[in-house]
Amino acid sequence: MNLTRILRHFLTGRAMVRRLFPHASLAAIEQAIKQSEISHEGEVCFAVEAALDTVPLLRDQPARARAVEVFSQLRVWDTEHNNGVLVYLLLADRDVEIVADRGINVKVSAEEWEKICREMETAFRQGHFESGVVAGIAAVGNHLQKHFRPEKERAGRENELPDTPVIL
């Protein structure tokens, strides 16, 4: 049991999420998702969670396991071409995880997703939360653009997942 981690989670609340991601930042992230999705058929979702609940925290649940749960809860897997991607931030751990559906996951290696996560975490350590997320979304979009080129204009396609960032 990591007492430092437990304390960090208990001290990280939704107020910190709102401080690091004010309304203007959330709007910029939403716009980055919309802009990214113009160039590909994929669906991108960004979710940020302040901290784990007590039971998962005491069980030492890793951010990756929580990201997979969130991927399911937000139904990111429920896209026509199985090309949804979740960018998940567990703020208390400053840990970013990318969970991709099977349609894109077979085309992009885990190392590529991990590289994007580490770049975002580097930006967060420097206090650049909004720009770190926007750059991460752009990098995810680049992979989606390579493998899921749009068949028709975005205006004629359904947006299968909301572009609005999710605060858990």
Automatic annotation (TrEMBL):
Domain TPM per the UniProt entry, residue ranges: 23-141
Any Pfam family: TPM_phosphatase
InterPro entries hit by this protein: TPM_dom
Biased composition (Basic and acidic residues): 149-160
Chain spans, region Disordered: 149-168
Domain of life, per lineage: Bacteria
Name of the protein described by the UniProt record: TLP18.3, Psb32 and MOLO-1 founding protein of phosphatase
